[in-house]
Specification:
Length: 490
């Protein structure tokens, strides 16, 4: 590899790692992170897998088991738990380099006579890793106690194996395709959308070879089809349960907060994720890469366009035909092909100075977007809400039972008149994380209004409007109105 490739890849790893690990404990735990913590904090792996069925339905527990093992060694502090995702997210930078390198090799780029083709592909792969490393959308999901960094790492690792198999063949890489396919889908069901794009691309390759499986590419495409099927088959024993849990969660209102997307949502998703200032530049480079690089990088461009657009289009159709499911984090892997197209646009610029300037400019505006995002508060103040709620309950009980008013001595039980309730129900675990007594019993919103004796309720912004209105009537005293959450009393 050239010095430029090594230096660019090293810069991507250093800058990307720093941005992912910076300020891991600065934001408060989210309600979704609370579910992952609650599942992973179960005493055994078997208990973790049992807990995740209700806490993280539709997943196979891969992230929760990994987090459980991580916590057993390093503890349960929030920054420590988030460090697992940051480490996987940093590893994904190296995986993007490998996957992009194989994708560019498989595209069959011809030597341009000025630079060896291998050097050109390696340098392009390093640039892709750098663009991936410094973009906010890949950074913020590496700072959460959630499975999304696992999803993107597994999908990219599978893509690496996929195109190495297409270029070289070999049992090991076919096995890698099958294994990483299973791992990615086990981490999150929406990973299957990326693999559907691979299936379409393989169909294109087979059709281009006129269904002649005597050719090398025809045989390898067929073998990859089998490997993808084998990866899905690995999950066959647990697939019915995963699908059933996901359907039950959806029918129970777990995703009712998702709104129906606007028709232009797939386009605006990339705008929002990369930043309003950076997006025009990145989109222009991606378009330039498609137009200018089509002859040189045709296979790579065809595949990246399928990978970039098929998943959001499928979720758009599902959102209008069935129920709204269009969410940025469900489509996290679709940003990798966008960054690859940006890279092609950069390397297709006609002058070395223009290419270098484009790299610096893209990295600068991307990092600027990260800095701007970090300066704003994006978390809900759950810890402050819990502290105020417990203090309110403690003062109530101390006036009637002689309690000295120390929140650490207060235990919330179902039989107590002074209990704490949480809405929405899935936020109960983030409240439990911040409680002085994490084993306390908490009331759920389904029972609040009818018969639960809770005296204080914590209401998050993501509660259903009708639930919030009913709780406002039942708990007329506003004790605190915090960022993303409020505390109310009877």
């Amino acid at each position: 590899m050239s010095r430029f490739t090594i230096a660019t890849l090293a810069l991507a790893l250093l800058a990307g790692g720093f941005l992912r690990f910076a300020g891991l404990g600065g934001r408060e735990m989210s309600a979704d992170e609370g579910a992952s913590w609650a599942a992973a904090s179960a005493p055994t792996i078997r208990a973790v897998l049992h807990a995740q069925h209700s806490l993280n339905p539709g997943k196979a527990g891969l992230h929760d088991v990994a987090l459980h093992l991580w916590m057993r060694v390093l503890g349960e502090r929030l920054a420590v738990m988030r460090a697992l995702s940051a480490a996987v997210g940093t590893l994904a930078i190296l995986l993007v380099f490998g996957a992009a390198r194989e994708l560019f090799w498989a595209s069959g780029e011809a030597d341009d006579g000025k630079r060896p083709g291998a050097h050109r592909r390696n340098e392009a792969a390093a640039i892709a890793a750098l663009v991936f490393a410094v973009n906010l959308v890949t950074i913020k999901y590496s700072r959460e106690v959630r499975m999304y960094s696992f999803v993107i790492a597994a999908v990219v690792a599978q893509t690496w194996c996929f195109f190495r198999a297409m270029r070289c063949g070999g049992l090991a890489v076919y096995a890698g395709v099958a294994i990483f396919t299973a791992i990615a889908i086990a981490a999150h069901l929406t990973a299957v959308l990326a693999f559907a794009a691979e299936g379409l691309w393989l169909a294109f390759v087979i059709a281009r070879n006129r269904f002649d499986f005597a050719t090398v590419h025809g045989r390898r495409a067929l073998a990859l089809m089998i490997a993808l099927g084998a990866g899905a088959t690995m999950l066959a024993p647990i697939a019915p349960a995963m699908l059933g849990e996901a359907a039950h969660a959806a029918n129970s209102g777990a995703i009712d907060w998702i709104e129906r997307p606007q028709p232009w949502a797939p386009f605006s998703m990339f705008n929002k994720a990369t930043g309003s200032i950076a997006f025009p530049l990145m989109m222009a480079l991606a378009a330039w890469g498609v137009v200018r690089g089509w002859r040189r990088w045709r296979d790579a461009i065809t595949f990246t366009l399928l990978w970039m657009w098929l998943p959001p289009i499928v979720l758009m159709i599902a959102s209008y035909a069935i129920r709204p499911v269009f969410v940025e984090r469900y489509l996290i892997s679709c940003f990798v092909p966008f960054f690859i197209l940006i890279t092609i646009g950069i390397v297709e610029l006609p002058w070395p100075s223009a290419r270098f300037g484009a790299i610096v400019l893209v990295a600068a505006v991307a990092i600027g977007h990260v800095v701007s995002w970090d300066r704003k508060s994006h978390d809900a103040q759950w810890s402050e809400a819990v502290r105020l709620a417990v203090a309110s309950i403690t003062s109530t009980t101390s006036s009637t039972s002689g309690n000295l008013g120390n929140p650490a001595n207060y235990k919330i039980t179902p039989a107590s008149r002074a209990t704490l309730a949480v809405a929405p129900g899935y936020a109960v675990d983030v409240v439990r994380f911040y409680l002085p007594n994490p084993t306390a019993q908490l009331a759920h919103p389904a029972d609040l209004i009818r018969h639960d004796p809770a005296s204080v309720v914590i209401i998050g912004d993501q509660s259903a409007p009708q639930t919030t209105a009913a709780l406002d009537r039942e708990y007329p005293r506003l004790l605190a109105n915090l960022r993303g959450v409020m505390v109310r009393g009877r």
